Amino acid sequence: MAEFTHFNESGRARMVDVGAKASTERLATAQATVFLRPETLEKIQQGKIAKGDVLAVAQVAGVMGAKKTPDLIPMCHPILLTSVDISFTETAEPDQEGRCAITITATAKTTGPTGVEMEAMTAASVAALTIYDMCKAVDRGMSFGDICLLTKSGGKSGLYTRKAG
């Protein structure tokens, strides 16, 4: 098991010193899925949610979430993001539980001494929370799942790609 790096010699939490690490191009892609009733997805697609264009607002919220990651995650370094992109895939065919889905894919990029995995996962999560907030009046039973890192590249550890399943 890898050594824990966020503890000092006294066993207390610390922010890791990345000052000596090489700056490399780093990219991470994460996802989150919102499960919702078919009627709710239909209202989103038809622009019939009273609060406005759900996916447009969720997209902006995801970008904002990525930018605020170090304010939310205590040991996360503030970094200069060079790009954040959010996309949505709608699954209109209900699953076995009768739920449709919106899968959010968030990609964050930087050039620096530390990665952007947390920014990508925060972006996907904040976009999911925004969908809930905008649609809760018509579907309080929405839920989230599959929040995970899909890929990351750059840095000493190189390429990571999540295995399917």
Label the overall shape: elongated
Could you report the average pLDDT, rounded to the nearest whole number?
93
Task: Please give the order of strands in the largest beta sheet.
Answer: 2-3-1-4-5
Number of helices: 4
Oligomer: single chain
Query: Which range best describes the helical content: under 10%, 10-25%, 25-40%, 40-55%, 55-70% or over 70%?
Result: 25-40%
Estimated structural class: alpha+beta
Q: What is the CATH superfamily?
A: Molybdopterin cofactor biosynthesis C (MoaC) domain
Order of helices and strands: EHHHEEHEE
The CATH architecture can be named as 2-Layer Sandwich
Main beta sheet: 5 strands, antiparallel
Structure in a nutshell:
The chain is of the alpha+beta class and 165 residues long.
Task: Explain this structure.
It is a single chain. The protein is α+β, with helices and mostly antiparallel strands and 165 residues long. It has one domain (23-155): Molybdopterin cofactor biosynthesis C (MoaC) domain (Alpha-Beta Plaits), CATH 3.30.70. Helices cover 27% and strands 30% of the residues. The chain has four helices and five strands, in the order βαααββαββ. The chain has helices spanning 38-45, 54-67, 69-72, 117-135, and strands spanning 24-36, 81-91, 100-112, 143-153, 160-161. The protein has a five-stranded antiparallel beta sheet with strand order 2-3-1-4-5. A hairpin with a 6-residue loop joins strand 4 and strand 5 (160-161). Helix 2 (54-67) packs antiparallel against helix 4. The model has no long low-confidence stretch (mean pLDDT 93).
